[in-house]
Design goal:
Number of strands of chain B: 15
Strand content of chain B: 15-25%
Number of helices of chain B: 9
Radius of gyration of chain B: 29 Å
Distance between the termini of chain B: 50 Å
Order of helices and strands of chain A: EHEHHHEEHEHEHEHHEHHH
Helix content of chain A: 40-55%
Shape of chain B: elongated
Order of helices and strands of chain B: EHEHEHEHHHHHHEEEEEEEEEEE
Structural class of chain A: alpha/beta
Helix content of chain B: 25-40%
Strand order of the largest sheet of chain B: 5-7-9-11-14-15
Largest sheet of chain B: 6 strands, mixed
Oligomer: heterodimer
Structural class of chain B: alpha/beta
Radius of gyration of chain A: 19 Å
Distance between the termini of chain A: 53 Å
């Protein structure tokens, strides 16, 4: 078995790299794929929090690199899904503790046993980014419909294109607010795709449920009702090659709108 | 002759010091204060016998601080003679200053401590035993109860001392610990214990059976006392890591994401929210104490425990109530118990 190594990166901080990583990983594992996530954000690790695995971490990636433990010992199994594993970053060290070659080696070892290796990248384009990209062959660039995030994503795509190892990269648009797009207060999906001229793999709507799910330490894809959860699920399905249409985010919101929709549905059926 | 007040001067009382070196140390400490500069000094000496040369050096010290010895009171005739030779006004106190009995007191205290320790950690006559099973514990408790009744009936005439002893035995750490384990029904502890066996598996190795050996415990307690102690007065934040070859005392919080590692005991005067590893060189009798035990992980020697998922909330929980707790190894698991008011 040779697993796919996907790096999730953005350049700008706070656009949702780690959230994306946690949710796509969980969604893939729910589909029965064997997934391992690597947190390369040494010193500012968060992925374990989002998965609620902080209390289980004994060994980190730095322990693996410095040969204090075996790679298998450092993999933390998810609470619910046995297909999902986490290789945590060390909180008490900095980015220089792991080199590109070492990360590449870890990825190669993991490829034998896992279908997907999702690498969570740190913000910025310095060593943290270079490390994370080293072992990957695919990339997902996360951005939000803001000028600054799009500019940084453009820079990142430029760097990714220069890397020979990266065979393909896809764009994931996060925190989209259809209402604002409608009122021309936010860049539309088409605008962003046109600026970056990259293939889109998903559109995730802004969802307050993300905040609660982060605080609980449970990825939002486990919540079937959540729109963002569904969107992440669709991204995962696209990753494994299914053809899934993009969600219609411009659904009317609010109680009155829902009532209207319900009645219009009835009328539509009678016709 | 007692001059309680001297114009533009003050009395320096060094009557507790019996050696020249002590007197000089005290004097230099006092005269170094900004208020003490260029003033007259009345020196109140104790029973120390000072020769002329010693007095000269003291005088030189006072003068080097821009002060002047006005007169001396002393309990020693030798000192008075040498002062008269140096033409310093002197008065001999008729009632000699009593030499403080610190040493005797300390010996007494030490003996009592020793006794108390023996009582707690068991010499041959000790009443306290280790309990292999809960049954034994219950039986023991009943025994203690019946003992107590007997004592209170028969020893009622003896008075206060025996009462104190009874209190002592009641509050000895071991008994409180075990009774706590039984009576503490709080969700936290139960959850913690129920997940412990699971947690131990994470290490991937079987943890060796740890026998609770009183002799070893006593020895290790003494050894831990001898270790150097690192004393930190600040809050440890995420990503910070401190390790020590001895014990560790932290006055402040230990935030989630930070870790503290010590070969001896760890005491946190605040909220322990990070990872704490006591007895890192294999001391299975090491303990972790905190005003609020909220740790993500606790490690003692090679035993490992993690916070139960049910209360595993990543952000810091603010608390109004602090319940001091202590973690130690019992039957190869980490057990947390409340520290009772003694």
């Amino acid at each position: 078995m040779s697993g796919r190594v996907i790096v999730i990166t953005s350049g700008k901080g706070g656009v949702g790299k780690t959230t994306t990583n946690a949710n796509i990983g969980t969604a893939l594992a729910r589909m029965g794929k064997k997934v391992v996530m690597i947190d390369t954000d040494l010193g500012l690790r968060n992925l374990d929090l989002l998965l609620g695995l902080e209390n289980r971490i004994v060994y980190t990636i730095v322990d693996v690199v410095e040969e204090r433990c075996k790679l298998k010992q450092a993999l933390v199994k998810d609470k619910k899904n046995p297909n999902l594993c986490l290789l945590a970053a060390a909180q008490t060290r900095d980015k220089s503790a792991v080199t590109q070659e070492q990360l590449k080696e870890i990825c190669e070892k993991l490829q034998k046993d896992y279908d997907f290796i999702l690498v969570d990248c740190s913000a910025g384009i310095e060593q943290g980014f270079q490390n994370a990209v080293a072992g990957a062959s695919e990339a997902i660039v996360v951005t939000t419909p803001e000028m600054s995030a799009v500019r940084d994503a453009d820079r990142i795509i430029g760097l990714l294109e220069a890397k020979e190892e990266i065979k393909s990269y896809k764009l994931l648009l996060n925190r989209v607010r259809p209402n604002l797009i409608k009122s021309n207060d936010m860049m539309s999906v088409e605008d962003v795709v046109e600026i970056l001229s990259a293939e889109l793999i998903g559109i995730i709507p802004e969802d307050t449920g993300i905040i609660t799910s982060t605080n609980k330490g449970e990825p939002i894809v486990n919540d079937e009702k959540s729109l963002a959860g569904q969107a992440y699920n669709n991204v995962a399905r696209r990753i494994i090659g299914e053809d899934v249409p993009f969600l219609n985010l411009e659904e009317p919101q609010g109680v009155m709108a829902k009532v209207k929709k319900f009645f219009s549905g009835l009328i539509g059926k009678e016709k | 002759m007692d001059k309680g007040y001297i114009e533009n001067g003050f009395i320096v009382d060094v009557s507790n010091a019996n050696k020249t070196s002590e007197i000089i140390y005290e004097l230099s400490r006092i005269l170094d204060l900004p208020d003490a500069q260029s003033k007259k000094v009345c020196l109140k000496l104790g029973n120390a016998d000072l020769s002329t040369t010693e007095l000269t050096s003291i005088k030189a010290l006072v003068e080097s601080m821009n002060s002047e010895i006005e007169f001396i009171t002393t309990g020693s005739n030798v000192t008075a003679k040498s002062a008269e030779e140096m033409e310093i006004e002197v008065s001999v106190l008729e009632n000699k200053v009593p030499t403080p009995e610190f040493d005797a007191d300390r010996e007494k205290i030490n003996k009592e401590l020793e006794k108390a320790l023996d009582k707690i950690f068991g010499d041959d006559n000790s009443e306290i035993k280790t309990f292999a099973q809960e049954k034994e514990l219950k039986e023991y408790k009943e025994e203690v109860k019946s003992d107590k009744v007997d004592k209170s009936v028969t020893d009622s005439n003896i008075g206060e001392i025996s009462k104190e002893q009874q209190i002592d035995t009641d509050n000895s750490p071991l008994t409180t610990h075990f009774s706590l384990n039984e009576t503490n029904n709080s969700q936290n502890l139960d959850d913690f214990n129920s997940e412990l066996s699971d947690a131990n598996k994470i290490e991937g190795e079987d943890i060796k059976e740890i026998d609770f050996n009183l002799d070893d415990l006593r020895k290790s307690l003494r050894e831990t006392e001898k270790l150097p102690t690192l004393y930190i007065q600040r809050t440890l934040r995420s990503g910070q890591s401190i390790s020590s070859d001895g014990n560790m005392v932290i006055i402040g919080d230990v935030n989630p994401g930070s870790e503290i590692i010590a070969k001896g005991d760890i005491t946190v005067w605040g909220i322990l929210g990070g990872i704490a590893h006591a007895g890192s060189d294999g001391n299975k009798y090491a303990r972790i104490r905190a005003l609020k035990m909220n740790a993500i992980q606790l490690r003692i020697a090679d035993v490992f425990a993690r916070r139960p998922d049910s209360i595993n909330i990543p952000y810091i929980q603010k608390t109004d109530t602090f319940v001091p707790e202590e973690a130690c190894i019992r039957k190869k698991q980490i057990v947390i118990s409340k520290i009772h008011e003694v």
